[in-house]
Input
Amino acid sequence: MRRVACLALVVTVVTVSGAQAAGDPRHGRELFRTGCQSCHGVDAKGVRGNGPSLVGAGAAAADFYLSTGRMPLDQPVSQPVRTDPPYNPEAIDDLVAYIGTLGGPRVPRVDLSHASISRGQRLFTENCAACHQIAGRGGVMAGAFVPTLLEATPRQIYEAARIGPYVMPKFSKKQLSDDELASIARYIDYAKNPENPGGWELFDIGPVPEGMVAWLIGLFALVLVIRVLGEREPE
Amino acid sequence: MKRWLIALVVLLLGRRRRALALPPGREPWRGDRRAENLTLLLLGVTMLAALGFIVLYATNPDTQFLGAAIGFAFVALAAACGIAAKRVVPQREEEEPRAELRHVQDEDEAMLVLEEGGEGVTRKRLFFLAGSGVAGLLGAALLAPALSCGPEANRVLTNSPWRRGRRLVTEENEPISAGTIGIGELVTAFPEGADKEELASPVIVVRVRPDELELPDERRDWAPQGLVAYSKICTHAGCAVSEYRYPLYDPTAPGPAVVCPCHYSTFSVTNGGHRLFGPAGRALPQLPLAIGADGVLIAGGDFSGRVGPSWWGVRKG
Output
């Protein structure tokens, strides 16, 4: 009987953490000591002014920051930006497993089966586009860069929405349900190579280049009109 | 007024000019009827487009149609001017032997040549009327938007639907429970039962850590549980303040603020909406919040200041 209960417990634990890749938390802890401890402190308890405590940050945050190469960071005060992750995927899994043992949100399960691009576009417009720009090309906001979403995977989009990395606000499940996040992820995937019925996408970065083109064409047309008007009548 | 207008029309139509005697041997300029017709047509189109602008402005000011109407008016006017200059006004070049320009008689003759230039145009009065019509209607079209600055404007700019005890609702008209807004989240809310399109309706609600708050003393009880609300309308140009930054770890990142995406005016959310950066001239008006008996957010009163872009009456506050 005890054996059955034990087995049931193991099964429950495995099911609950099912979305996470099976990393080795012990190896992750070793990696943490060499790579992360100088800023995040002994046992990830944080170093005041350098790096936050990761107790309760969760596997989702670790997976987001490590798989996008935002961590490790050269300077603790600079904004983390996407790079090629210095850790290989196995090492990331181990680190994520270690941070996961400290509590906090798990790596989310991504299910795009009910996602809809049009719903995703509406939600993205309402919640994300003010900063990330309507085609997800990123931009600036006062005091920070807004990253492009072209390289973001659906899992990273889920994680970012829930944890609110750097200065990004958080989105609770009440604000954006998992299904809605799936639609947003689907739209972002579509926005990487959107259809352009108008023809010329101009890097999809919005009204500035479009306005420039309009001005250049308009100015050229005006010069032509002036040239024609100023011509003398043939005698 | 009406009599004056009739008098003006009679004056314009009734003015006859003496026929000029052409010097012997000079052929009169033959007007180009087709060009004249085209010019008149274009002037008519200009008037119609300008009239269209006024009608559109009065009925449904969709900026796309307004821009199209006024743009079309100017394009048609430009085309009319171009054709008139090329085809309607005489283009003949003639040399006149003249000993000295300062001779009185010669100057008279030069004046005659100048006036004669206009003689070739066959329907001068029609042109004059069309020109006056264009000037009048296009001028009226340009002045039409000024009518929005009437007494209605003051009501739109100063009216606020927020009253003490009025519930905050989402865009779907659901009351907002205080517990559902977490730290680092932003929620857009509206007054229950009010017109969401009104300038003072939309507010942003965010939750910060209560120890982060640096509100002025008189607003100390405006932020229950660290929940603060501000007008969503930027005090610079009236855009929707829709960007929110809340640091995951504040010692290494910029502090909590809302940012207007139009010109990057940045307002702190912890100290009463003070401007941190950008062209806005004054703080974002704060809405006092309270938590009702059933745990939903209600307004504790009206805004701390005037909502919306600054104008001459409101620059501070």
